[in-house]
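We modelled the chain as a single entity of 539 amino acids. Its sequence is:
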Amino acid sequence: MAAVETLVIDNSLDGAAAGAAFLLKHPDARVFVSSAYSLPSRLANLREWDESIASTAVLGIGCKRSPAELVEAMRQLAFQGVSISWFVAGAGHPEHEAAVRSLCTIKKDETAGTLTDAVLGMLELRDHPRAKLLETIARSGRTDRMTDREAKTVAGIAVASMYRFFQLGDREVYPSAVRKLAGLDGITEDDLAMAKRFNAQGCMAGLDGSSPGVKEVRRLVGLYGPLDSLNVLVLGETGTGKERVARLIHQESRRVSGHFLAVNCSTLSNSDLLDSRLFGYVKGAFTGAVADRAGVIEAADKGTLFLDEIGDMPLETQAKLLRVIEDGSFNRLGSTQELKADVRIVAATNRNLAGMVRDGSFRIDLYYRLRELVIRIPPLRDRLCDLGQIVGTIRRDLAAEHGRRFPDLKAEQYELLRSYAWPGNVRQLKSVLQKAFLLGVDGNLEQAVAEEKEEGIDCLLNLGGGSAIEAAAPAPVYEIPGAAGDGRGGNLPTLHEIQRRYAMTALEACGGNLTRTARALDISVNTLKKLRRENQEGQ
């Protein structure tokens, strides 16, 4: 079996161009991708892809893990007979380089302006016909700064492929683009279409991480996106990123040139407000309607409409939405004129719609039309292995927003984050990290996490079924006469009475908040109001 050469690059244009430069000398090398955070695990698992791998070149990637972790990963590769080269430009990574110097060959050019320039120089390729193009791409860093048409085209394909690789889990597209940067493979119509879609919509941030749950979400987004005649139901707890997934679905669909519009049904729970937002209205339809106005369904024609918190949509509006889904027809409020729209619905909820169908608060026909395709987003507590990438994204976003640099977290600080279940998921994590980073991580992160635990928000967020009330308060215990086998049983409370008592206990535990309690019990607000009224009348 022939020995296999590999190279490992990151997701920057300089990294892609440097990878292409390496391929000019080693055209049969296989391309792998890694972040600075995941570099040790990428190296440690490299031979799982192919046991015949004999050498690997790491191009410029730093390491955000401890030197000991990088040493262990390289030691495993060396023990398996794999030779390692580490190409470095500029100052490099002194602490990690010193730790692994005996395990790999470090090739360093401290004067090189880019990693691509360093690789071209060390491989004696600066006179290669492709070298100037690659250096142009590496120096620019962004496609909008490029004036060379060929460089702009091939770099645009590389950027679009980076996006698909990291946000959609397409494992082949980015390595393939690096080969095209090197001129080893030709550019296809599909490549140009991919770049055009990316330019039209931009980079949609998806779910960070590489856990099995996140990989499955990415797989389904890539599979469901092009099936744009079918609606999608996105399920997940509060703060898991349901709108991000909806935007990715739109990005992957043939509707990408159309609008993506979002409506949060819970903020417009009054049916008239929600109807006017969705379907539009004509002048005089109600007080304040001084002119005709199109709704979001009309505006989203040939595009995608994201309906968040679909479980809060009133029954009257559900019937109207079902009509839109079935034949595309609707009426503006106050008008008898029938209008048409071709809209794909992506709906999301953190509620149990099947339970709502059972208690009559959600239409069964609409339920089945919405769940033609289903994506379930795992909660953060089930993918804590993704914390490194999630925290890295939050840290970079905060740095860009505030114009400051923030240090990465230490190993013990990551362990602190893993000690909490994060009921508010990534949204809650971002809130805690923002406070800690801005005030100083070392002195404030532990306190911020402790405050989250002390507030007991576990009983207020993402509550489902009986476990919700167990988190909020002890379940009520009913002494039932006759239960001990005395044969009487005549004073047993009815099942409805037990339901009412339990609902009142839950309402008290949730501070009297009807919406929160209804979600915890998986019943409608109207049902809860009825139980409360019966309880008041019985007192």
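As a brief sanity check on the tokenised model: The CA atoms of residues 351 and 432 lie 25 Å apart. The radius of gyration is 28 Å.
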